[in-house]
Amino acid sequence: MACEAVAKTIRTHFADHFDRAPIAWPNVDFEPQPREAWVRLTILDSAGRQVATAPPRFRRSGVVVVQVFVPDGTGDTAAREIADEVARVFQGSTIDGVRFGASSIEHVGPDGGWFQLNVQQAFEYEVV
């Protein structure tokens, strides 16, 4: 499976299974609406290693980061509910050969009028 095919699988699955808030996609113009929650999805590719020699097979891994933003000063309940929903989209599933483990949720806090939590979701896939 190629890098772009994996990214397309991740983006399509997220778009099809998450409708709680508008999604900001990488390198696509997006203007958040005032006082409305939104999320930003980023795919970070990382390590690769050879897992078999005959025939050669490789395993690549990465992390999907979904930044959750809610208006600052409104508490963290909505952000946590959205983060839980994001985690449910991927956590523990295999989608078209892309395997997802456990999600983690990171508190970032207030920044520029928004309160932020990050959902980090590790993934891996095979390259033949």
Summary, kept brief:
With about 130 residues, the protein is of the alpha+beta class. About 25% of the residues lie in helices and about 50% in strands.
Task: Please describe what this structure looks like.
The chain is α+β, with helices and mostly antiparallel strands and 128 residues long. The protein has a single domain, classed as 2-Layer Sandwich (STM4215-like). Helices cover 23% and strands 50% of the residues. A six-stranded mixed sheet has the order 1-2-3-6-5-4, covered by helices on one side. Strand 4 and strand 5 form a beta hairpin. The longest helix is centred in the first third of the chain and has 15 residues. The mean pLDDT is 94.
| Strand percentage | over 45%
| Coarse morphology | elongated
Tell me the span between the first and last alpha carbons.
7 Å
Structural class: alpha+beta
Question: Any idea what the CATH architecture is?
Answer: 2-Layer Sandwich
What is the rounded Rg? 16 Å
User: What's the β-strand tally?
Assistant: 6
**How would a textbook summarize the main sheet?**
6 strands, mixed
* CATH topology term: STM4215-like
**Mean residue pLDDT:** 94
What characteristics describe this protein?
128 residues, alpha+beta, STM4215-like, six-stranded mixed beta sheet
